[in-house]
Amino acid sequence: MADPSYDWAALYQKHRDAMYGVAYEVLRGSGRWDLAADAVQEAMVSLMKAPPSEPPRSWEALLVVTAKRRALDIVRSAAVVRGVEYAEEYVAGGAAPDEDDALERLEKMARARAAIARLDAQEHYVLAQYIVLDRPRDEVAAELGVTPGRISQINTKVLSKINAAVEGGG
Description:
Residues 11-78, 115-162 form the RNA polymerase sigma-70 region domain. The chain is mostly helical.
């Protein structure tokens, strides 16, 4: 049972970003970053079920450490389920085992950003509205004063430019 003298909602609101950040970093290396919110939730539930007998000197420290422990539990349980052994320094937030892949992904993202920066205004609009926001082609066409077929052409052109930059390195 949660101790009513602690305002758990306020504590969560104040420290959720720090908790999420730590959980995300721990889980990112194992490819389970998508479970960071679960680690934060489990941390809050465990503290609510067994609250500290006296208020801690730093709520942030307690909440962040608890979230980190829950994230480590998730990584370790994933390792057991998959039968994969993770090096302890890797689990604790050390360097990723395949840094070359991570570097390559970062370089590709940088090339994609550069290609996007070179798009004209109409191409940017189609990228944002039609591709990213998945708005109907007819609506985007009406806003730009072109035919829906032209939106498809611009879409293909934008994706080709980005793909060429990412894959070709240019």
